[in-house]
Amino acid sequence: MLMQSSDYLTRLTALLAQVDRSEFDRGVALVRDAWISGRQIITLGNGGSAMTALHFMTDWTKMTFLAHGKPFLGRSLVDNMGLITAYANDLSYQDVFSAQLRNIAAKNDLVIAISGSGNSENVIRAIDVANEMGCQTLGLCGFSGGRLKERAANVIWVNSNDMQLVEDVHSVFGHIVMQALCHAEALQ
């Protein structure tokens, strides 16, 4: 039997009602503060989370600049396939993000790592490197939160074992950030 859309939407609605809004608010504040201070905001992830990382940068970079005229120093570590495959070939796939961070990140930049399971090795290595470099870290995860929940300084955890619902909630966070930045009144 085919699942009805109402079943999915009911589960998503219930999950959204359980979201820790203080985690969302903290995440929004981290992005806003990095943007206002002119620091980089760097995203990364695998698979669907890679697309979420790109989606964040597309929305945040374009829309905040259009709304305020203030540059948004956003980049994603998933958008340069040549660089990813070079690091995967010459080092390892587990180092494709951490190696990039070592080259471009600076102390106090914000690194946002996205992993549905919270256990993707290349994401964990990137968070570890970002923490070592003195970056601020925000982990978006689901399921039990995995190692990402333990290692990121700030976490948005979606308590669900359904990858698609986890990805939906992560996407909602990205849209909340975009609207919060676009509607920010006082830029310091």
TrEMBL record:
<dbReference type="InterPro" id="IPR035461">
    <property type="entry name" value="GmhA/DiaA"/>
</dbReference>
<dbReference type="InterPro" id="IPR001347">
    <property type="entry name" value="SIS_dom"/>
</dbReference>
<dbReference type="InterPro" id="IPR050099">
    <property type="entry name" value="SIS_GmhA/DiaA_subfam"/>
</dbReference>
<dbReference type="GO" id="GO:0016853">
    <property type="term" value="F:isomerase activity"/>
</dbReference>
<dbReference type="InterPro" id="IPR046348">
    <property type="entry name" value="SIS_dom_sf"/>
</dbReference>
<keyword id="KW-0413">Isomerase</keyword>
<protein>
    <submittedName>
        <fullName>D-sedoheptulose 7-phosphate isomerase</fullName>
        <ecNumber>5.3.1.28</ecNumber>
    </submittedName>
</protein>
<dbReference type="Pfam" id="PF13580">
    <property type="entry name" value="SIS_2"/>
</dbReference>
<feature type="domain" description="SIS">
    <location>
        <begin position="31"/>
        <end position="188"/>
    </location>
</feature>
